[in-house]
């Protein structure tokens, strides 16, 4: 005869933290009515009648709170003990599998970077975002990274992680990009905020190359730092930052290199107000010129240099040594520039 009880909806995906309603329908028989039906979950005893709603003589609904994360069965049974029901018990029972999960949560703090590759920019855009909110194994969230070259092509890649890489063919220098993430699962879809900016603002170059530090005699409190651009200025224009510390110290001082013009090609800077005859460790890094959103490069390797000696700031110290008898010896010690003159005996 086929089943006499059918539950709707079939194979539902239910959201944890909400109430779920199902209806049990009696079909192809007048043997039982809605008053003969009852509900139970696979992990509990019979669901109390206070959660039932009688729709009509052949339909009984139940509303249950979804609190547990584990997916489970929801059954509709017949409690009538007539000979026909007892002999055909299997067709007077029906169950549905409740797949449980959470709605997807919007991806947050989206950031992207395209790194320098040899003397140009890589066509691969790497993006990361924060994954928020709980998930269940049964209802996992998938993320689709969307990258649109404004007035150009659109690219996408799908992942279950919080990062992805998109191949753009050729890096779209000086073109505007629109980047966002779609988070979706069986319970819905939600879109992140859009990251819309010039493609070059997403570039991370190599550190400045050929970093040199020069100590100049006559400048005891300064060092001249020079470097070379890591990438040609027609591809991306850069601004620079220097950090320095005394050798053995872990406290860095930072200086942004000022620009003499809007598109400066400056590749040197004089550190001042240093201490004479001290070893200084110096590094340089760079990023695109026009935006605070650009990625700083890594720091260059350490360069260590010693500041020159300073002139004496006072007369030399004098020690008088008294001798025996009629004679006296005086020993004069003084410091002249970078060497000592000692032992003048009078």
Automatic annotation (TrEMBL):
Q: Kindly give the Pfam families that the UniProt entry links to this protein.
A: fn3, Lep_receptor_Ig
Top-level lineage group: Eukaryota
Membrane topology, as annotated, equals: Single-pass type I membrane protein
**InterPro entries for this protein:** FN3_dom, FN3_sf, Ig-like_dom_sf, Ig-like_fold, IgC2-like_lig-bd
Compartments, record wording: Membrane
Q: Which SUPFAM superfamilies does this entry report, sorted A to Z?
A: Fibronectin type III, Immunoglobulin
What keywords does the record list, in alphabetical order? Answer: Disulfide bond, Glycoprotein, Immunoglobulin domain, Membrane, Receptor, Signal, Transmembrane, Transmembrane helix
User: Residues in domain Fibronectin type-III?
Assistant: 207-310
The name of this protein is Fibronectin type-III domain-containing protein
Q: Which organism is it from?
A: Characodon lateralis
Its lineage opens with: Eukaryota, Metazoa, Chordata, Craniata, Vertebrata
């Amino acid at each position: 005869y086929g089943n006499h009880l059918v539950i709707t909806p079939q194979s539902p995906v239910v959201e944890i933290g909400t109430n779920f309603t199902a209806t049990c329908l009696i079909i192809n028989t007048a043997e039982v009515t809605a008053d003969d039906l009852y509900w139970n979950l696979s992990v509990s005893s019979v669901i109390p009648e206070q959660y039932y709603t009688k729709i009509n003589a052949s339909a009984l609904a139940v509303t249950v709170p979804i609190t547990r994360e584990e997916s489970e069965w929801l059954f509709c049974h017949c409690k009538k003990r007539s000979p026909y029901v007892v002999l055909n018990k299997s067709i007077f029972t029906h169950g549905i599998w409740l797949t449980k999960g959470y709605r997807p949560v919007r991806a947050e703090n989206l950031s992207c970077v395209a790194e320098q590759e040899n003397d140009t920019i890589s066509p691969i855009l790497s993006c990361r975002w924060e994954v928020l909110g709980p998930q269940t194994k049964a209802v996992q969230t998938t993320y689709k990274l969307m990258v649109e070259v404004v007035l150009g092509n659109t690219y996408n890649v799908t992942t279950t992680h919080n990062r992805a890489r998109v191949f753009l063919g050729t890096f779209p220098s000086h073109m505007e990009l629109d980047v966002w993430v779609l988070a979706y699962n069986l319970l819905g879809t939600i879109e992140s905020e859009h990251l819309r900016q010039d493609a070059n603002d997403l570039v991370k170059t190599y550190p400045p190359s050929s970093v040199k530090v020069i100590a100049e005699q006559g400048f005891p409190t300064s060092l001249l730092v020079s470097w070379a651009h890591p990438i040609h200025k027609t591809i991306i224009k850069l601004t620079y930052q220097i950090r320095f510390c005394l050798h053995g110290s872990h406290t860095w001082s930072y200086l942004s290199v000022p620009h003499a013009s809007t598109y400066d090609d400056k590749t040197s800077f004089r550190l001042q107000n240093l201490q004479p005859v001290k070893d200084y460790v110096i590094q340089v890094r760079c990023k695109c010129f026009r935006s605070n959103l650009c990625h700083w490069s890594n720091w260059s390797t350490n360069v260590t240099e010693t500041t020159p000696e300073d002139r004496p700031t006072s007369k030399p110290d004098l020690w008088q040594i008294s001798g025996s008898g009629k004679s006296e010896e005086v020993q004069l010690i003084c410091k002249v520039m970078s060497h000592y003159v000692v032992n003048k005996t009078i």
